[in-house]
Amino acid sequence: MNEIRNISLNDLTDYCKNLKQPSYRATQIFEWLYQGQVSSFNKMTNMSKEFRCQLQADFQIGSLKTQLKSVSKDGTIKYVFVLEDKEMIETVLIPTKTRTTVCVSTQAGCKFGCRFCASGIGGWRRNLNSAEILMQVLHVKGEAEKLTKPLSHVVFMGIGEPLDNYDNLIKAIHVINDERGMNIGARRITVSTCGVIPKINKLSDLGLQIELAISLHGYDNESRNVLMPVNKKYPFDDLISACRKYIKKTNRQITFEYILIKDVTCTSQAAQELKKAFKSLICKMNLIPYNPVSEFDYETPSKNEIINFQNQLKQFNIFSTVRTPRGRDVGGACGQLRHRII
Asked: Domains of the chain by range and CATH?
């Protein structure tokens, strides 16, 4: 049976028209799903019983089964959800003093195999459909409301490469952003990519005001080849060029995510090379201290090493912030918790 959250508002409008229902019924359904967060068509009380029965016959309202829920001492909550076909995904609720963010997965597993990330261990299984993406956001939205910390931001930084599941990603973003849906502002939605250049170009054509984050994690072709196999298909220099085009076309600043690994990416040489690459580039860097994964033989830099690296970037007029590690005690790095139980 069709999962109704795979259906766009336009498709719902067509469905209602085919049943000789007024078009506004589609908006009512949409609002019940994403604002009312109903789990049953019977709860859509401003529609006739007959129409609700028809909806029940044609669609289902699915839900995610929680396999594991881990609460960190810093307030981060990490969920492992089981999908209908028994695949597992991770979703994270990240509360701070100023915002509440959900980190969302877009695929079961990952095919890109970055050599510091647990998401790709075990390989790629499949894309998530838009309903499976939206159900993660809805679940965390409900949990955040229970904690009186309303959901404010959505980041697509969970398991999988978002732009490798482009159509379902964009479909979900439209619902999240729609004022009749979850009504979360576009600038509070961030898509992270390891650098799938054709889809970055395609995204720039949409005119969305969302935030784009590039998982750079290397300072030139050679260093990025070691950590990110995707660089062999979409090389460092080509990626930076695509980012420059994206900024020019959208007039939006890009964030570069950059993992800090002791003696690998957190070095004076790395800072010098980034100075060359980022010349005249409108961007900011999010420096991410490495979160150890047992399968990879890397170490986290010391606090002084991180400060020294950031100071070097500042000297080169590269603005950066250091991401505060979250949820380390509950397998906070992407894919860690899922990997432990599959």
From this structure: 2-60 (1.10.150.530), 65-341 (3.20.20.70)
